Amino acid sequence: MIGKLDITMLQQIWWIICSVVGALFLFLTFVQGGQTLLWQVAKEEKEKSLVINSLGRKWELTFTTLVLFGGALFAAFPKFYATSFGGAYWVWMAILFCFIIQAV
Q1: What is the rounded end-to-end Cα distance, in angstroms, of the chain?
Q2: Rounded CA gap, 13 and 32, in Å?
């Protein structure tokens, strides 16, 4: 049987994992948002092509980090995760809609 100290330590480890992944997602979102300003900097078609090619990997990494953060949050706090989907359904839908608009 797992002792109380072990459960506390496991909760702290999951909290650290969620915090690091959430901070990484936030950082990548701001980096990705800042890179959209490069469209204003690129003057020629070749420069625009280079900017688009440089954004691809970061775009994938940002949303992969979002999925990883959701999975870590679910693994660490399943009751909170389940409650937030029931209680804040429209907030989650607004966030999803904003991601769709950002992709377009």
Answers
A1: 51
A2: 28
DSSP per-residue string spanning 65-99: HHHHHHHHHHHH-HHHHHHHHHHSHHHHHHHHHHH
For 32, residues 6+ apart whose C-beta sits below 8 A from its C-beta are 55, 58, 59, 62
- Give the pTM: 0.62
| Cα–Cα distance, 78 to 91 (Å, whole number) | 18
Which structure tokens are listed for 13? 């480890």
b/e map of 46-63 (b: 16 or more CB within 10 Å)? eeeeeeeeeeeeeeeebb
| pLDDT tens profile 22-63 | 899 888 887 777 666 666 777 788 877 777 777 666 667 888
Residue with tokens 């999951």: 14
C-alpha to C-alpha distance for 38 and 24, rounded to whole angstroms: 22
